[in-house]
């Protein structure tokens, strides 16, 4: 899955991301939560990533 935020809002991007993840058995497991977060973050626009860059994924 190579979804990018593009010109949509973060909320719209998140909704699309979640709808696509529903089709992936891997991303629907508790073990994949970290990978799912990383994948989501990588698809964000650079200026949004910068704003959350100081937050660490747990």
From TrEMBL:
Native species:
Trifolium medium
> What is the name of the protein in this document?
Gag polyprotein-related
């Amino acid at each position: 899955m190579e979804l990018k935020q593009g010109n949509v809002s973060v909320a719209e991007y998140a909704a699309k991301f979640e709808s696509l993840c529903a089709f992936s058995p891997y991303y629907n497991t508790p073990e994949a939560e970290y990978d799912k977060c990383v994948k989501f973050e990588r698809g964000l626009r650079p200026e949004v990533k910068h704003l959350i860059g100081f937050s660490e994924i747990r």
